[in-house]
Amino acid sequence: MSEYWPEEEGSVATEEETRQKSDTPRLYKVLLHNDNYTTMEFVVMVLVNVFRKGEAEAAQIMLDVHRKGIGVAGVYQREIAETKVASVLQMARQAQFPLMASMEPE
What we know:
Blueprint: H1 11-23, E1 27-33, H2 40-49, H3 55-68, E2 70-77, H4 78-94, E3 100-105
Antiparallel strand pairs: 1-2, 1-3
């Protein structure tokens, strides 16, 4: 048989699945980092306004940041994650807080 007609049954689906997986954009976690100056209320406000979290979820993430030193605010495609990080840093600077945000591949 030719290379265009696979001999094994099901090999076409495998090639198609591989192609679909490679087309999926890489996702990035946006992380908030704890510091000794940013208020818990400000972190919750950032999570609600920038990441569109509900009050309860925002409070839980804020507690993760406070207790563990870092918390995942959300998972997004690269460009969106970069925009969210920039928004957090801008809001923190305007409010004169040293809150840090970063992103890393999931």
